[in-house]
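DM from R.C. (forwarded with permission)

"hey, sorry to bug you on a friday — could you get me a structure for this? deadline for the figure draft is monday and I only need the backbone to look sensible"
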Amino acid sequence: MANHIPLVIASGNPGKITEIQELLAGFPIEIKSLNDFGPIPEVQEDGETFDENAYKKASFASKILGIPALADDSGLVVEALDGAPGVLSARYAGENATDEQRVAKLLKEMQGQINRNAAFVCVLSIAVPSGPALTYEARCEGLIAEQPAGQNGFGYDPIFFYPPLNKTFGQMTIAEKSQVSHRGKALNELKQEVDKVLIWIRRHMPLEEQFLYEQGRGD
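My reply, with the result:
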């Protein structure tokens, strides 16, 4: 793919990778995932905000691999739980918990709660090896359902009810979810500025890397 800029998705979550690949299809970007490379050290997601964690993941992967990286940090913010699980969404039921276990814990915490308001939040960070990064942020408002519904998506999708479509994220197709989800909105913002983003990446990459791109790196 001559003149395509390589961009690694700094995530091991296949659901996230698929969504990002779908939304960025058709642009002069060679999408890669961490699975395309040998094992790299894990970054500590110990930031206090989605912004901090997204930047840490993108910057770390970019510096290790030497190419631009895109990372997303996202999570579920529940009003009745004072914003929990928040940045701990993926680790809410323990480090190695399954999606089903995380959902079960959240539903248990929400038993008896009248206020079901919640929001999915997503921060995207695009970083280059020298350190600078671009940030995109979006959120999607919804409700915590009383029980799971739908087999699509991942994470808390089966219990995140989106009133305008009268469906949980778990009941939506990828196309439906991409139009309204936190990650979809953030990626669509990125898509609107993709030409500027590609120019920014080229300007901030080391000179030798810029030369490789111009020579058609990625063939």
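R.C.: lifesaver. The longest strand covers residues 133-144.
me: no worries. Confidence is low (pLDDT under 50) at residues 210-219.
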